[in-house]
Design goal:
single chain; Transferase(Phosphotransferase), domain 1; 2 domains; transmembrane; transmembrane receptor protein tyrosine kinase activity; about 35% helix; Phosphorylase Kinase, domain 1; globular; nucleotide-binding; about 350 residues; alpha+beta; two-stranded antiparallel ribbon; 5-stranded antiparallel beta sheet
């Protein structure tokens, strides 16, 4: 496993901006040559799963890929939309290069790219349960149906995402968009496996980016830290804040953070000290960790390595080994709360 990547080259590559007239950086040219090129005739694209930052995402089947050989395998295919801008294509390429440099069991694996086709394709491993947010919402209990997940399952999901984020932190990389919708989940031998994905916004540590990233219609908005909303600063500690919001999503089975507020109210609420409420049925030990992630002073928040130690320790507690449905009855969960707030995507 590549525990440490070449941080210097990736930092230069992810902060490089192409205006249409600049020559591509040497670092990026080298990284592009290292991408696992797939033959488009070996790719069969199936139904649409979602719309991503740069285009549609489909499931598919590959009969031959450089990473896994000639055996047939299910895949996920991200298409670059046909009307892309030069910067969107650059970001698409950066995402491919980043994923090719990552090597960790809790990060979605790049299997191949098709860059000489229209549209260009980015091919990743297939996770059969889809994105984490949809999975959580499908697990909400009803009056007649128990939840499909246990507290033990939820802690396992949290630890998987935490491991992926700790790997990025160790390699001085900031995801900038940690959220349940950007994690993928699968079931293997009755065990849930969760991986961190969607690196379209990722950059080197301590990047700065206002504008669309922090705008009222930004898909990141409800997961952003106060310092990001104030000055556009992204650091490993702003990722920790976002991870705290993912904890809220996980323990509430996919409820919308700040669900009583419209997008235009979020920034001022967070900058003035507002944080998500405690989810009903959330164990006090996990809520305490959430509050640590949401400390106003970024330097006071724990690192992902410290958070991982805390969650691994909770796993030894008998309360978190409970495999009964979570929660035990419908109660708080109201499906009308899902999707009613502006532009939660």
């Amino acid at each position: 496993m590549k525990e440490e990547m070449n941080c210097i080259n990736l930092e230069k590559m992810t902060t490089f901006k192409q205006n249409g007239t600049e020559a591509m950086s040497n670092e990026m040219s080298i990284e592009l040559k290292n991408l696992p090129a797939a033959r488009v005739e070996c790719i069969e694209i199936g139904r649409k799963l979602a719309t991503g930052n740069f285009g549609d995402v489909h499931e598919g089947v590959a009969s031959s890929l450089p990473v896994i050989g000639d055996r047939e395998t299910k895949i996920t295919v991200k298409k670059l939309h046909p009307n892309h801008t030069a910067q969107e294509k650059m970001n698409f390429l950066k995402e491919a290069i980043l994923m090719n440099n990552f090597d960790h069991p809790s990060i979605v694996k790049l299997l191949g790219v098709c860059l000489n086709t229209i549209p260009e394709l980015l091919i990743t491993e297939y996770m059969d349960c889809g994105d984490l947010l949809t999975f959580l919402r499908s697990s909400v209990p009803t009056d007649s149906t128990a939840s499909e997940v246990s507290l033990r399952d939820l802690l396992s999901i949290i630890i998987d995402v935490n491991r992926g984020a700790a790997y990025l932190e160790m390699n001085k990389h900031v995801h900038r968009n940690i959220a349940a919708k950007n994690c993928l989940i699968s079931k293997q031998s009755n065990n849930l496996i969760t991986k961190l994905g969607d690196f379209g916004f990722a950059k080197g540590a301590y990047s700065n980016d206002m504008g669309v990233v922090c705008g009222v219609n930004s898909p990141l908005l409800r997961h952003l830290s106060p310092e990001t909303l104030t000055n556009g600063q992204f650091t490993p500690k702003s990722d920790v804040w976002s991870f705290g919001v993912l904890l809220y999503e996980t323990l509430s089975l996919g409820q919308i953070p700040y669900d009583k507020l419209e997008n235009r109210q979020i920034a001022e609420h967070v900058k003035s000290g507002g944080i998500p409420s405690k989810p009903p049925y959330c164990p006090d030990q996990i809520h305490k960790i959430m509050l640590e992630c949401w400390k106003a002073a970024a330097e006071s928040r724990p690192s992902f390595s410290v958070l991982l130690e805390q969650f691994e320790s909770l796993r030894e507690n008998s309360e978190f080994q409970d495999d009964k449905p979570f929660p035990s009855y419908f109660g708080f969960y109201d499906n009308e709360a899902f999707g009613t707030s502006q532009a939660y995507c």
